[in-house]
Amino acid sequence: MRYLLLLLALMAAGPARADGFTPSAEDKLVQQGRALLAREYPETMRHMARQDGFGGPSSPPIARAMLSDAPELVAAAKAKMSVEKLGDRMWLVRFPYVNVALVETRTGLLLFDTGYAAIGPALVELIPTLSKKPLTHIVVSHVHVDHAYGWPALKAKWPKVKTITSDLFPAMAAKEVRLGGSIGRLNNQPLPLQPSTVDRLPKADIFVRDRLSLMIGGERFELFHAPGETEEQMWMALPGRGAIFTADYYQGFLPNAGNGKRIMRHVDEWAAALRAMAAFKPALLMPMHGAPVSDAVEVKRRLTILAKALEHVSAETVRRLNDGERKDVIAATIAWPKRFAEEPTLDAQYNRPEDISRMVSMRWTGWWDGVPGHFAALPFEAEAKEAIRLAGGIDALDRRARELLPSDPKLAARLADWAFFGEPENPVALRLTVDVYMARLAEPDMPVQEGLVYFDQAAKARAMLQQLGRQPNP
Q1: A single Pfam family, by name (predicted)?
Q2: CATH code for the domain in which residue 304 is found
Q3: Which of 100, 16, 13 is CA-nearest to residue 64?
Q4: Which among 365, 399, 414 is the end of a domain?
């Protein structure tokens, strides 16, 4: 039942903390459709949930409301929390979806990252059981909800704590608020929970520009700003203990460097940061997602092969852009050598190499895809209606899409999009959309981000079918 609960949780409204954005009629339609599909396609839902957890345990209530610190969510975080003591006076605290790290010094404690909102109160209870020393410093690696929103509870408990962020953090925090509706929708978070001000985000006492060396409790902490998953992201090294704290640069699988639903990723700087980490020759890797790595040789190997993989995608993409190839062709045919394809820590469970290639292209060449007619803005609906007419009607398009689906599901999905956007009130178009995208979701190698896009499109079509009074025909 866990997979069904997960999808029903994604559909449900979050705990009450009304802040910023109101769901649209289309948002509500998607929620209704998710519930219908979760009941009608249990095996596909099970397949979707196979990678839930992002390198850690899962919790459906937390997954749908990471901005909430409601008591039941704090309890859920504590129930699946585990504490691993690593090295000398260091702990990796693992929660559903994300980790935080705690370091004890001679004079106090330093916390690396604060987790999502429910983690803050959980840490307020946990930290005094690990050490009697006060929390003196908090490092917030970046602004994402699973790293920054536990801060208010910690600041309330230890008001004298010094918070450390990149000097770009305030600007990125303002961006999170400005785009809160879009971010919440694309991250499957309840829109009323999205912040409308920066009040809940960390306020820094110490800023890092490029690099900062701090003496804390008689030890040297090295902090490095390096754009990666976000522009302001940072990582930390503790040379005296041979440890690095990797934020979201290392995730235990092919990292979220090609997320087509979020702000620009910085692939080249990401790879450079990984090489800088390896240059420290650390014996302990403390990640914010997934399990720690405590063998120096293995730490270096993992950091290096990930750096090489990102460098490979970036270099090939840029070379082919310079050769005059179109961006869609580059992404669709990007080479992925066997040494990367067979590496467990490069498993494409969240996004694909071709998504990273698209991110590189978008960064350096703008939005135009190289197709001349696409330079002029035109609603996709206009193209879709004409494609249906040229095909000889919706029934002909439906037949061809279904013929293609077993052998060329990508092309079948393009035809299904023409059907949906060209005749959105036609039950044939809606049924085709559900069938094509639920089939795509069932593909063995479907990554999480891509799958969620397809699930929401199928959900919208399924709810529209219900509105038309048509029964399912899976």
Answers
A1: Lactamase_B
A2: 3.60.15.30
A3: 13
A4: 365
- Please report the pLDDT score of residue 189 as a whole number: 85
Whether 299 is in a domain gets the answer yes
Strand partners, 312: none
Asked if residue 72 lies in contact with residue 17, where contact means CB atoms within 8 angstroms, the answer is no
Residue 289 near residue 115, CB atoms below 8 Å? no
- Give the confidence band of 7 by pLDDT, cuts at 50, 70, 90: very low
pLDDT in tens, 127-175: 999 999 999 999 999 999 999 999 999 999 999 999 999 999 999 999 9
144 lies in which domain range? Answer: 69-365
Q: Are β-strands 284-286 and 243-245 bridged in parallel, bridged antiparallel, or unpaired?
A: parallel
How far the first Cα of the chain sits from its last, in Å, is 21
C-beta atoms surrounding 473 within 10 Å: 9
Region of residue 89 (phi > 0: left; psi between -120 and 50: alpha; otherwise: beta):
left
3-state secondary structure of 207: strand
Spatial distance between the Cα atoms of 416 and 435, rounded to a whole number of angstroms: 9
What is the tens place of the pLDDT at every residue in 169-190?
A: 999 999 989 988 988 888 888 8
Task: Specify the pTM.
Answer: 0.93
Handedness of CA 369, 265, 182, 26 (dihedral sign): positive
The count of structural domains within the chain is 2
Q: Give the integer Cα–Cα distance in Å for 380 and 378.
A: 6
Query: Quick one: 45 and 96 in the same domain?
Result: no
Q: What is the number of residues in the chain? A: 474
Residue tagged 């509500």 (tokens): 28
| Cα gap 360→354, rounded to integer Å | 10
Q: Which amino acid is at 437?
A: Y
**Same domain flag for 141 and 36:** no
57 lies in some domain: no
